[in-house]
Design a protein that fits this description.
By secondary structure, the chain is α+β, with helices and mostly antiparallel strands. It has eleven helices and twelve strands. It folds into three domains: 115 residues, PAS domain (Beta-Lactamase), CATH 3.30.450; 82 residues; 162 residues, 2-Layer Sandwich (Heat Shock Protein 90), CATH 3.30.565. Helix 5 packs antiparallel against helix 6 and helix 9 runs antiparallel to helix 11.
């Protein structure tokens, strides 16, 4: 069909004004056209992209097999839809929903490819967080049921052992064995207690508190705990809003995060505790309501957390520490306490750049 100049102008105007990023490459991947939406998405102007290979957008996040599958599909004349993690001009990375369609000339030969891209970085992050929340909720239910059953059994064991010990001579070998059994049972009960916190089945008694006050109270204890090769820094917001929180449990949260940071830096480093007010808008997080929050960030200068470990960091019994060096319940306990108080916790980390755990607790009514 022959297009009139007016129709061509309308088509060009539509391509230039659409919010989606559109670009056309030849069969070798060289960019021959890009609309203004492409510049808004990537940061690259038309002049910077014409004649360049679309590979300038590669982030290094995809395998060779990923690209082989994509090229293998479109070079046979079929359409391809998928998600790319692309690098922007400023070096940041974003997730783009992409649809690529083959373009044939009048002879029917494959000549070009049209790619339409939409930035879904924010939606993908919310989707991942929702999946993680559902996963943690399922783990919490399982942990709660198992902990409840084991706790009942341990209560019987501890009670029975205490009665038995009243009948055993104090200096006998039997007494030493009994004391060992009792100690082990009590340690097991403590692990169960932490699992119950993770599953949010242990009752909390919150009160109206300023988190800055609790942090200040624990400063001396933390300094003694960390030793001389770890430096503590604080940045506490003077106008931090009050929250409804169980003080002792927040101390446990803080100590667990600080100890976790310390363990990540055996050669020493800096741990910073920072507080600030934060307003959460609707849709920022699927697990949080819109409103005002008191936020606490605990960051370190350690080696960071690998992506595969970051995804599981709050799971009970998951640990990156050597065998025998940790139970894997520290961060899951933190997660359970914060969720019990209707808050949220997130972790940000890149290998070699340390880690930052941020707690958000809703402002008290």
């Amino acid at each position: 069909m022959e297009l009139t100049p007016e129709t061509c102008r309308i088509v060009i105007d539509a391509l230039n004004q659409t919010s989606e990023a559109l670009f056309i490459t030849d069969v070798g991947g060289t960019i021959v056209y890009a609309n203004p939406g492409f510049e808004r998405l990537t940061g690259y102007t038309l002049q910077e992209t014409l004649g360049k290979n679309a590979g300038i957008l590669k982030s290094g996040e995809h395998s060779d097999e990923f690209y082989a599958d994509m090229w293998g599909t479109i070079k046979t004349g079929r359409e391809w839809t998928g998600r790319f993690i692309n690098r922007r001009k400023d070096g940041t990375k974003g997730i783009d929903e992409t649809h690529i369609s083959p373009i044939r000339n009048v002879k029917g030969d494959l000549s070009y490819f049209l790619a339409i891209r939409r930035d879904i970085t924010r939606e993908a992050a919310l989707e991942e967080q929702l999946i993680q929340n559902q996963k943690m909720e399922a783990l919490g239910l399982l942990a709660g049921q198992l902990s409840h059953d084991f706790n009942n059994l341990l209560t019987i064991i501890i009670g029975s052992m205490e009665l038995v010990m009243e009948e055993i001579p104090k200096e006998s070998t039997s007494m030493k064995l009994a004391q060992g059994i009792l100690k082990t049972s009590q340690e097991s009960a403590n692990l169960i207690k932490q699992l119950l916190i993770f599953s949010r089945r242990q009752e909390a008694e919150p009160s109206l508190v300023n988190l800055n006050d609790i942090i200040t109270e624990t400063k001396v204890l933390m300094d003694r705990l960390l030793g001389v090769n770890i430096k503590m820094e604080y940045g506490l917001a003077p106008d931090l809003v009050k929250v409804s929180m169980t003080p002792e449990q927040f101390k446990q949260v803080l100590m667990n995060l600080v100890i976790n940071a310390k363990d990540a830096m055996p050669s020493g480093g800096v741990i910073k505790v920072r507080t600030f007010n934060q307003s959460i808008s609707k849709g920022l997080s699927p697990s949080m309501k819109a409103g005002d929050y008191a936020s606490v960030e605990v960051s370190d200068t350690g080696p960071g957390i690998p992506p595969e470990a970051r995804e599981r960091i709050f799971e009970p019994f998951f640990t990156t520490k050597p065998k025998g060096k940790g139970t894997g319940l520290g961060l899951s306990t933190v997660y359970g306490i914060i969720k019990q108080h209707k808050g949220d916790i997130v972790v940000e980390s890149n290998p070699g750049m340390g880690a930052a755990f941020t707690i958000r607790l809703p402002k008290a009514d």
